[in-house]
Amino acid sequence: MKGVNKLRGLYAITDSKLLADGRLLPYAEAALKGGARLLQYRDKVGSAATRLREADALRELCERHGATLIINDDAELAARLGVGLHLGQEDGSLATARALLGGRAVIGATCHASIELAEQARREGASYVAFGRFFNSNTKPGAPAATLELLEQARQHVALPIVAIGGVTLDNASQLIASGASLVAVVHALFAADSASEVERRARAFSSLFAAG
Ligand SMILES: Cc1ncc(COP(=O)(O)OP(=O)(O)O)c(N)n1
Ligand SMILES: Cc1nc(C(=O)O)sc1CCOP(=O)(O)O
Ligand SMILES: [Mg+2]
């Protein structure tokens, strides 16, 4: 999509429980209609066949809406579909994934609250670095904590787009953006909703927080 920075804005992350019972595609599309720039397929429970089918459908939706699909954890699936990838510290080598996916793929790395991990991720070929969790998270309550001060430091020292994740809501996202987040990654505050139209409304509200920057 010309003139739009794909690595700035709302980063929607799917959740297999919240998006069960046929909600995955309508709710994901609602997030994209509301302006999500990245969509991560995060599924820890499905079979390989289900994951391939769902990720392929999401790829098609992202293409239609000019957004980028990111696969969580699974470099092989990302390579098979020709889409992006997110890797945590225990999810395998970034450098190997970069070699597999090529120079144009968006590849992100979890860096918890560590500038050193972010620097290492940059050297190994990451496209963005993710810090978190910033607030109490319904989805991953045990994730290590990060602070707004860390975000300010990362903005000064890390030459990559920064993702803030963990307990992000419409009430606290502005602080993260003001402190240096290029993208806010959201599960619960986006997808724990009674309807697709409510997801779209929330996605628009998150996206509008970036309009001024
Ligand atoms: C954008 C983004 N940031 C962080 C994570 C967490 O990745 P990881 O630490 O590998 O944990 P799981 O998501 O795999 O449980 C993420 N997925 N996306
Ligand atoms: C997948 C994930 N990783 C985190 C980290 O801090 O690395 S927090 C998190 C869950 C984000 O979901 P919610 O928006 O519901 O808090
Ligand atoms: Mg992971």
UniProtKB/TrEMBL annotation:
Domain Thiamine phosphate synthase/TenI as annotated: residue spans: 10-190
Record-level GO BP terms: thiamine biosynthetic process; thiamine diphosphate biosynthetic process
Keywords: Magnesium, Metal-binding, Thiamine biosynthesis, Transferase
GO cellular component: cytoplasm
Pfam families: TMP-TENI
UniProt pathway: Cofactor biosynthesis; thiamine diphosphate biosynthesis; thiamine phosphate from 4-amino-2-methyl-5-diphosphomethylpyrimidine and 4-methyl-5-(2-phosphoethyl)-thiazole: step 1/1
Sequence positions that bind 4-amino-2-methyl-5-(diphosphooxymethyl)pyrimidine: Q40, Y41, R42, D43, K44, N72, T110, K140
Enzyme Commission numbers on file: 2.5.1.3
Binding site for Mg(2+): D73, D91
Coiled-coil annotated residue ranges, if any: none
GO-annotated molecular function: magnesium ion binding; thiamine-phosphate diphosphorylase activity
Cofactor(s) needed for function: Mg(2+)
Annotated family: Belongs to the thiamine-phosphate synthase family.
Role this protein plays: Condenses 4-methyl-5-(beta-hydroxyethyl)thiazole monophosphate (THZ-P) and 2-methyl-4-amino-5-hydroxymethyl pyrimidine pyrophosphate (HMP-PP) to form thiamine monophosphate (TMP).
Protein name: Thiamine-phosphate synthase
Organism (species): Pseudomonas saudiphocaensis
Chain's gene name: thiE
